[in-house]
Amino acid sequence: MLSYAAVGKKIRLGRLLPDGKSLIFAFDHGVEHGPSDFSGETINPRKILEKIVDVVDAIMLLPGMANITSDVWAGKVPLIVKVTSKTSLRPEDARLLQSPFGWVEDVVALGAEAVAATVYWGSHYEDSMLRQWFTVKREAEKYGLPCLQLSYPRGPAIKNMYDVEVVRYGVRAAIESGADLIKTYYTGSTETFREVVKTAAGIPVLMSGGAKAKTLLDFLHVVKSVMDAGGQGVVVGRNIFQHENPKGAAKAISAVVHEGLDPEEAVKKAG
What we know:
8-stranded parallel β-barrel, alpha/beta, globular, two-stranded antiparallel ribbon, single chain, 16% strand
């Protein structure tokens, strides 16, 4: 017989990956990058969330943003709360450290389906972030909350953080540290990302959307590559909210993730 927490985790993972795949909308950029990531109406988070809550499979927010926008997302889309972050205002040598931005109790209180935290593997702050990760993990286990690790290899010793061997290392470290879901970098090809997925040993791997691509079609080709490699989906922010039609962009990405549409066909959904 499963424990209550194990049952809860299984149910929540099923909501986040409704068909074993997921498009998660990431919206923590206001802290990580600052207001400059937004223009026009996008500076108001409600304007974006209202457009995409009925398209994506989940949204990932920091606790304060989840709180002030709950009237928009509650009851419409599963929530993942990220409890670590950092600003770009701090000294450059301290930007390889994520700090606490909330607690697991906040995640539970907000009614979220999962908790997320970042680990910069290879950073000289790796030990601090691991202590933070395991504190989050231990508390989340009590409540049956899945833990999404943003597994990001970054540090002075890493020459290319997108190199397949570097990304595979970060993914292996993520599963060894108990991640239930992994968000990581795209390695440049279907063949190399397939090796990343193999390294995860069955733990769902989702690609980090990264900076806005030159065109939506370019980004859809990357998404298709990830899915063809066996990835379980993508966690996307800027390639949705910086697009002129955020809802259309989300629909197009979802079509590649869930329907397996070719990018040239899927991009038509963006209008």
